[in-house]
Write a structure and sequence with these properties.
Length: about 300
């Protein structure tokens, strides 16, 4: 799209890049965030493995005090005593996850917000008067319960679900007269399921936080519409395949409905969409002084220092 503007008293044409340009820029911007999510998921998996080793030690220590011929014998008091030893390890595990995921989502929201504004300004060669975003606003954004519960609630619920499952499994193992080795395998399988749940939460929340910060950047730049962009490979859901390329109004963006994450482990994202109406808005903004021209070769650090309050 080409818009005609008045630059220093002379009519000048500015080319607004097409959708492919914005999709390519978006891919370059979000790829590092997905790598960060993968790295956190791997670190969480290691923490689950370490937690299992701690729980296994607790089982064998407890067994040394409470077994008869290597077999745990059932009593309610013994289950309570065992869970009293196990629960602190689970609390520590999920406390670490809470801190790590909060830090990642906070940093991702902030970084994506500024870099989305940078991409918009650099691509159009036009910038507005942008404001920064404070920590309180970011915390409020990432804590929004877009799927019915926010990520902190989900971590808390996952922790309690694991504790309840372990209590049930241990009780049943003791009643059946399972060996400590068999009981340890049961604990390991339950931790493995919880680790997968934790990883899925990381990936899903990352997608939603990127959409939230995209929307904030679009609103700041005064973009009217955005395009849904799916990642196409063997893992792409039919839901995201159907949504790819669809254009929606920024004011109508609802995460989980017409913006990622649409489903668990969703890897889709959004890009700005420039219609003729948006082109006219930029022209008017330049005439009114709302927008100004910017060197398209500007680097991100200079942009951040010079053009964001």
């Amino acid at each position: 799209m080409i818009i005609k503007v008045n630059m220093q008293g002379k009519e000048t044409e500015i080319t607004i890049p097409d959708s492919k340009y914005w999709q390519d820029r978006n891919k370059q911007r979000v790829t590092p965030y997905w790598k960060d999510a993968d790295n956190l998921e791997k670190r969480m998996n290691k923490e689950f493995i370490a937690a299992f080793k701690d729980l296994e030690k607790e089982l064998y220590t407890f067994a040394g005090k409470q077994t008869e011929d290597g077999i745990l014998t059932y009593s309610q008091n013994r289950v309570v005593a065992l869970m009293k030893e196990i629960k602190p390890h689970v609390d520590k595990l999920y406390g670490s996850h809470q801190t790590s995921l909060t830090d990642l989502l906070m940093e991702t929201y902030k970084d994506n917000y500024f870099k989305a504004l940078y991409d918009l300004s650099r691509g159009t060669k036009i910038y507005g008067s942008f404001v920064g975003i404070n920590e309180r606003a970011i915390k409020a954004a990432i804590s929004f319960p877009w799927s019915g519960a926010n990520f902190s609630d989900r971590i808390y619920n996952n922790k309690n679900r694991l504790i309840g499952t372990l209590r049930t499994e241990l009780t049943q193992s003791i009643i059946r007269g399972d060996s400590i080795k068999t009981t340890a395998r049961t604990v390991a399988s339950r931790l493995d399921i919880s680790a997968k749940n934790a990883g899925r939460l990381v990936q899903t929340e990352m997608g939603s936080v990127m959409s939230m910060s995209d929307k904030a950047a679009y609103k700041e730049y005064d973009v009217d519409e955005y395009e849904y962009c799916s990642v196409f490979d063997a893992r792409t859901s039919q839901q995201c395949r159907d949504m790819d390329g669809q254009v929606f109004r920024v004011d109508d963006m609802v995460i989980g409905v017409n913006a990622p994450s649409l489903h668990p482990n969703c890897r889709s994202s959004t890009t700005a969409f420039f219609s003729d109406a948006m082109g006219s808005k930029l022209v008017k903004g330049l005439d009114d002084g709302k927008y100004k021209y910017i060197d398209s070769n500007i680097d991100y650090r200079t942009f951040e220092q010079d053009y964001i309050d």
